[in-house]
Design brief:
By secondary structure, the protein is an alpha/beta fold. The chain has one domain (30-251): Zn-dependent exopeptidases (Aminopeptidase, 3-Layer(aba) Sandwich). It contains eight helices and eight strands. It has a six-stranded mixed beta sheet, with helices on both faces. The protein starts with a helix and ends in a 7-residue tail after the last helix. The model is unreliable at 1-24 (pLDDT under 50).
Length: 253
């Protein structure tokens, strides 16, 4: 019997080992579907699309237009282009960790417009995403720098279902981004803002946040935003925040 017990124990260990090895090698974002919204679009300022930009819709709080042109650095880098470049880098990082990534727009062109903010907000649910992160850059007074994250305010009939998990996502983004080297805003009292006026958030049916990665009017932020290494760093910070949120398995599985 003693020899049988030893044999069974050895057999049990040999059967369990592959499962343990598979768990160790599992990609941290395997099974996650993540929606990324590169804010704005180069063509939003093209006069050809003025009528599209003038479209309006009530967002649960106020009436807002389809979209805007976004801001730019003093040297002329459009926010839309910066957002796009960071989104492309972020997409690759998340996919390397096992995630499926969907983008709200697939071009960065003067010959394209939108999509409207209500379509951006609804995109996460449309593609079955676990969360939506909208990438932006701010145009604040030049003396301030750093990132901040916007989460949706609870609005009855609009954001009841996502306000709480979106707050959790925002807090994870802030913690993860700081741990990855991101600098929290110096021109706001907190890196977390909870707002009821953002259509991208109010039209979402999945946890959603807007991340203002920095201030395009600030010289140091603008310099970093304009470099490939800086864009890579911003993407890495975003990936750290998303991964932190998804560490609770039920959130992204």
């Amino acid at each position: 019997m003693r020899f049988l017990a030893i044999a069974v124990a050895v057999l049990g260990l040999s059967c369990a080992a592959p499962a343990l090895a598979a768990a160790d090698n599992a990609q941290p974002l395997s099974g996650a579907v993540i929606a990324i919204d590169p804010g704005h679009q180069l063509g939003n300022g093209n006069p050809r699309f003025a009528s599209q930009m003038r479209q309006t819709r009530f967002n649960g709080s106020i009436v807002k237009s389809c979209n805007t042109t976004g801001t730019a650095t003093n040297q002329g880098l459009p926010e839309a282009t910066f957002n796009w470049k960071v989104a492309q880098r972020l997409k690759g990082m998340l996919e390397s960790e096992g995630a499926t990534v969907r983008l709200t727009r697939t071009t960065n062109s003067r010959e394209a417009w939108g999509p409207c903010v209500w379509d951006r907000g609804g995109f996460g649910a449309k593609v079955g995403a676990h969360l939506l992160v909208s990438i932006h850059a701010d145009g604040a007074p030049a003396g301030g720098h750093g990132f901040h994250v916007i989460a949706p305010k609870r609005i009855k009939g609009w954001t009841d279902d996502i306000a709480k998990p979106s707050r959790a996502l925002a807090e994870s983004m802030i913690t993860g981004m700081k741990a990855s080297g991101g600098t929290p805003t110096t021109y706001l009292s907190s890196p977390l803002s909870v707002r009821g006026d953002q259509s991208t958030l109010n039209f979402s049916n999945v946890p959603a946040v807007i991340v203002e990665l920095g201030n395009m009017r600030n010289r140091a932020d603008a310099r970093r935003m304009s470099s490939a290494s800086g864009q890579q760093g911003f993407a890495r910070e975003l990936a750290a925040g998303i991964t932190r949120y998804c560490e609770v398995r039920s959130r992204c599985r």
